[in-house]
Prior knowledge:
Elements: H1 31-49, H2 57-67, H3 75-88, H4 102-117
Amino acid sequence: MSETEFRHxxxxxxxxxxxxxxxxxxGDFTLVEEEILTLFGDxxxxxxTGELLPTNSEEKHFLRVLAHPHKAKxxxxxxWLKYIRLARGRRRFHTLNGCKRAGSFREEYENDLVLEEx
Length: 118
C-alpha cells in the first residue's frame, strides 16, 4: 500500500448502515479490498463530496474516474467504484419462483400427454 501517493484517511472508514458486520464479512469484498476501504475510504469519500481538494495526480485522476468509471486503473479506484455500486445501488433480489405462468405449465403437461397417447 505504500507505493501510492493517495492520502490515508484521518480516521478508519466504516459503513455501518450498509455493511454492519464489516466489508469483508459481508461477502462482497476481499480482505485486501477491506483494507483499502478502511485505510483510504475516508479520503475517497471526502474527495467525492468536495470536502477535500486533490493534492496529487492520483487524487485528480480519482475524481475523473468518478465522472467516467471506465477509466479506472488503480485498485483504489476499482474498489471505490465497487463500494459505490454495492452501497448505493439497488440490491438484487432473487425469488424462488420461475418465470413461466401456471397456465403454461398446464399446456406443456397436456401437450406431453397428447404425445404419449400417439
